[in-house]
Amino acid sequence: MPDQTAFSPQELFDRIGTAEAPVILDARTDEDFAADPRLVPASLRRPGLKAADWAGAFAGREVVVVCDRGLKISEGAAAWLRHAGARAAALAGGFQAWRAAGLPLLPHDRIPPRDAQGRTLWVTRARPKIDRIACPWLIRRFVDPSAVFLFVAPAEVLAVAERFGATPFDIEGVAWSHRGEACSFDAMVDGFGLRTEVLLRLATIVRGADTGRPELAPEAAGLLAASLGLSRIYCDDLAQLEAGMALYDAFYRWARDAASETHNWPAAKPEIRDVQYHRR
Predict the structure, then answer these.
(1) Where are the alpha helices (DSSP H) in 6-71?
(2) Enclosing H/E stretch for 81
(3) Rounded to 5 degrees, what angle do the CA atoms 61, 66, 72 make?
(4) What's the gap between Cα 121 and its chain centre?
(5) Strand runs (DSSP E) across the chain, as ranges?
(6) Residues 131 and 118 sit within 8 Å (Cβ to Cβ)
(7) Cβ count near 102 (within 10 Å)
(8) CB–CB of 149/136 below 8 Å?
(9) 176 exposed, middle or buried (CB, 10 Å; 0-12, 13-18, 19+)?
(10) pLDDT 10s digit of each residue in the chain, 280 long?
(11) Looking only at Cα atoms, what is the longest distance across the chain?
(12) Which residues contact 214 (CB under 8 A, 6 or more apart)?
């Protein structure tokens, strides 16, 4: 982020959901946060006026700071972050500008409690295929980039959730799971307030692949094939998750930036000039 000290809401939104997204810190005062306890997606709460105490933890990283109006608190916190070695900017117009632009906001009360390291902890069934890779991708890209995922025997998911303080997903009888014809990914897109056109398009593809309805989207069959292929390549669930992150990054960027693009063969042939050759 060369010499950039402010991001517009749209510039920041375009980075969220990608592997290159900056760290986003919500530095609003407790009073401002209480007035609207929602968050810019993937953001962490930090007390802006105490930036000198925590800025060093973000040295070497790209950071965008959000305060209520994008003025003194975010500017000051960003300056402290730069002093500590971060590449830091403020969100222009702050939280109010983001909200006025109609961009997604996460309800804070839907985000699970964080552990001592500041991470959310999730648990689901081992040997993931589609929904259990799609949901972690959504969480890491839009809710908590540092989220930890535990893959365990199906019969032990709820017990592990209770003993380790994890949030269960994609099993029967829990909040983050299938609802009627919708899958767990649908539930998270809806529950976290992420109903953008792009994520709804991706949700349709995931639903078609995960519930045996490839007719929902032409891309569903391709996602199913790629997901099953990854499950055969990787015996380790965490290694498969890391590979799946790249797969869903690609589907997200296609849905956002390239859904109307086509590719044909043969390519247009160059014009052939009528060249006359003369014998000497």
Answers:
(1) 9-15, 30-35, 51-54
(2) helix 72-83
(3) 105
(4) 16
(5) 6-7, 23-26, 38-39, 43-45, 62-66, 87-91, 106-107, 121-125, 148-152, 167-168
(6) no
(7) 8
(8) yes
(9) buried
(10) 444 678 999 999 999 999 999 999 999 999 999 999 999 999 999 999 999 999 999 999 999 999 999 999 999 999 999 999 999 999 999 999 999 999 999 999 999 999 999 999 999 999 999 999 999 999 999 999 999 999 999 999 999 999 999 999 999 999 999 999 999 999 999 999 999 999 999 999 999 999 999 999 999 999 999 999 999 999 999 999 999 999 999 999 999 999 998 888 776 666 655 545 444 4
(11) 93
(12) 208, 220, 221, 224
Place of tokens 């749209």: 10
pTM of the model: 0.92
**In DSSP terms, which residues pair with 124 in a beta bridge?**
151
**Token pair 């997903």: residue:** 169
Q: Any idea which residue has 């247009």 for tokens?
A: 268
Residue with tokens 């632009």: 101
